[in-house]
Amino acid sequence: MPSVLKPFDPWKNPLCTCPPKTSLNPYTGCPHGCLYCYATSYIHRFASYRPKDGLLRRLGRERLEPGCLVSLSNSSDPYPPVEKDLELTRGCLKILREKGARVQVITKSDIVSRDADLLGRMPSVVSVTLTTLDGDLSRRLEPGAPSPKRRLWAMEVLRSKGVPITARIDPIIPFINAQEINELVGSACSAGALHVTSSTYKARPDSLMRIHQEFPDQAWALKSLFSTGRRIGGSSYLPGEVRKRALETVAGACRKAGITFSTCREEMQDMPGDIACDGSHLAAILQRRPV
Q1: Is residue 149 part of a domain?
Q2: How far apart are the C-alpha atoms of 291 and 192, rounded to whole Å?
């Protein structure tokens, strides 16, 4: 039976600067239904999520080097609603703790707060995605995901247990959420974020079609921008000056707040050597003092 752990490889994207790490996806697919999702162009019926068969037994048999970095999850969410009852991700965390792994959790779900006790007793970092503070806009962009208020609350709970937190302000979409950058950074910091990773929207035909259906007026202007951008790694990128302007706004807000900042697949990396673009450097800090 194939391994449940895979080397992280974002479809061989030439701009990825993530440190070496291993991917673990407890679930196949994702229930959030984000309009901007890139994974739907790779995975058939991505919205029909399901738990991995025999995952805990298979993970228990894996051999891991102590201190290796395991990321949950890079193309799905490790905390879909059924996780409340199945506790599959929680079971994975227990096994990874026993094996001495460092863990990075990437999620949009407030269910992660349930595992604050466990995450606070292992080298871990939780990255929570925030795309908007507007509940109505969130329901349109990410119809199956918990509200921004629930995500911020979860961040506060995790920090109270000493779990390092990062925020993914990602993607920034002109005409839709780009005007919220300063407020997003401020709210993330207030909730305890120590680092922000940000990137602009990289369009694929299916995701751009979904955005056009939900935001027809904004989509026409967005398509006009993409027409003067370029394609990288199978995705359409916004023009360089548009991306730079948005990301410099995020960087400025982070500097003002006194936290670190990085970009994701943007050709704009300029970070100290001890800062990882995905915030995973914080997973080396065990039981950091709560804010």
Answers
A1: yes
A2: 7
Q: Is residue 289 part of a domain?
A: no
Give the closest residue to 60 by CA, choosing from 3, 22, 17: 3
Q: pTM higher than 0.85, yes or no?
A: yes
* Domain enclosing residue 32, as ranges: 5-284
Query: Residue 136 region, left (φ>0) first, then alpha (ψ -120 to 50), else beta?
Result: alpha
Tokens coding 226? 């993409």
- Which region among 28-42, 180-194, 218-232 has the lowest average model confidence (pLDDT)? 28-42
The domain that holds 220 is classified in CATH as 3.80.30.30
pLDDT, one tens digit per residue, over 175-200 is 999 999 999 999 999 999 999 999 99
Q: How many CB atoms lie within 10 A of CB 237?
A: 22
Instruction: Kindly report the number of other CB atoms within 10 A of residue 284's CB atom.
Output: 15
Residue 112 and residue 155 in contact, taking contact as beta carbons nearer than 8 Å = no
Which residues pair with residue 107 across a beta bridge?
A: 128
Task: Let me know if residue 266 belongs to a domain.
Answer: yes
Spatial contact of 166 and 279, defined as CB atoms under 8 Å apart = yes
Q: How many domains does the chain have?
A: 1
pLDDT reading at 290 higher than 50: no
